[in-house]
Amino acid sequence: MDTLTSLINQLITSGGIGFINLFLLIRLDYINFSKENKEDKYLYLLFFSIVNYSIYLLIVEVSKYFSLPIAFHIPIAILFVLILSIIFTFILWIPLIKILFKKVNDYRGKDKRSSYDSRSIKKIAFSFKENKPIFIFDFDNNLVFSGISGWFSDIDEADFEFILYPFNESTELDNYDTLIKYVSTENIDADVYINIDKKIKVIIIN
């Protein structure tokens, strides 16, 4: 029992039992960590771990009032913590984060600053649901590839990679100047994603 308690205490100090909350919030794009602020991850882990550990201690105390073998107290508490941790993520943490972001953007709006978005630029640019024409050029305006959007990696720390499906026929828009003239003069909505590290410009036709 002492060994298990010691293990749980180590998980608390390392932020281990707050990982479930953080994983769900990251995958649902409510929290985002870049290379510059990755230290914030440990603060979130510590916070969620403290909350989950408090729930764990409460359940252990409550379980003592039931006619259960002592050996079952900690396993049952751990099981309930895992379940409640997932439930609280959706009914507590996500609503609180939404309220917080709304307040932050209200204040930023008053200061005439741009809205805050927890997602990375890559996720914002490629978070469309329908397939779209995409043209990729290097910084010398040479075509790298063009086609219809497919899958792309949305993990921020992973290499930027995606799948495009080639057009069924050639197009004059594969020329950079022609494409820029097209999106500038026609009633066309387009986004341009620029990746400095990869030295590419991705033009997305909406």
Please give the largest β-sheet: 5 strands, antiparallel
Q: Which consecutive residue ranges, at least 5 long each, have pLDDT under 50?
A: none
Q: Which percent range describes the beta-strand content? A: 15-25%
**Could you say which overall geometry the principal axes of the C-alpha atoms support?**
elongated
N-to-C SSE string, H for helix and E for strand = HHHHHEEEHEE
Keywords: Membrane, Transmembrane, Transmembrane helix
Transmembrane segments: 12-30, 42-60, 72-94
Summarize the structure.
The chain folds into two domains: 2-110, no CATH class; 121-205, no CATH class. It is 50% helix and 16% strand. The protein has helices at residues 2-14, 19-27, 40-63, 70-110, 121-125, 176-185; strands at 133-138, 143-152, 162-165, 190-195, 200-205.
How would you describe this structure to a colleague?
The chain crosses the membrane at residues 12-30, 42-60, 72-94. Keywords: Membrane, Transmembrane, Transmembrane helix. The protein is α+β, with helices and mostly antiparallel strands and 206 residues long. 50% of the residues lie in helices and 16% in strands. It contains six helices and five strands. It has a five-stranded antiparallel beta sheet. α2 (19-27) runs parallel beside α4 and α3 (40-63) runs antiparallel to α4 (70-110). The protein is elongated, with a radius of gyration of 24 Å. The N and C termini lie far apart (59 Å). The model has no long low-confidence stretch (mean pLDDT 81).
